[in-house]
Amino acid sequence: MAEITDEILMSNVKEGRLSDLAELFERYHIVLYNFFLKLTGDRNGSEDLTQNLFYRVLRYRHTFNVNQGSFKSWMYQMARNQHADHYKKEKKLAEILKHTDEDLEALQIKEEVYQEDDYVKLRTALGRLGPVDRELIILSRFEGLKYAEIAKMKDSSIGTVKVQIHRAIKELKNLYFTIK
Q: Tens digits of per-residue pLDDT, 43-52?
């Protein structure tokens, strides 16, 4: 028996069969958690973002249209939006804390400098990238989305996305090799 596609499950959820959302959760909660973890570096925050994303999927199920693309790209678009909202809130909080305590980023960098592992260097370099470049690399290289899917999410051309990802990878490479 063939496995039911994500698009069929989401169409069922859209039509009111909310129990099918459990199957989508099982398929995607770990990859979404890892996506958010790579963007934020915060385990607890990533758990919250993952859980909240599925609330959004449920809340905005009426906007899913199988003719406009895959469930996966629709879900990642929602994840991007949620991360952007989270980032704005975190930025405001960081501004408040900046005036009362040491800069949080400086503390994280101090802790990571003492470790020699390549994974830590990569995570540090990713953290130093701008949020747009970091997101592009994570979507394309870690989450495996195709350039066309990313272009659709960003409402730009495939060529533009290819150039942006190329530049982001070049910047990541430069950052990676400057970390001691």
A: 998 999 999 9
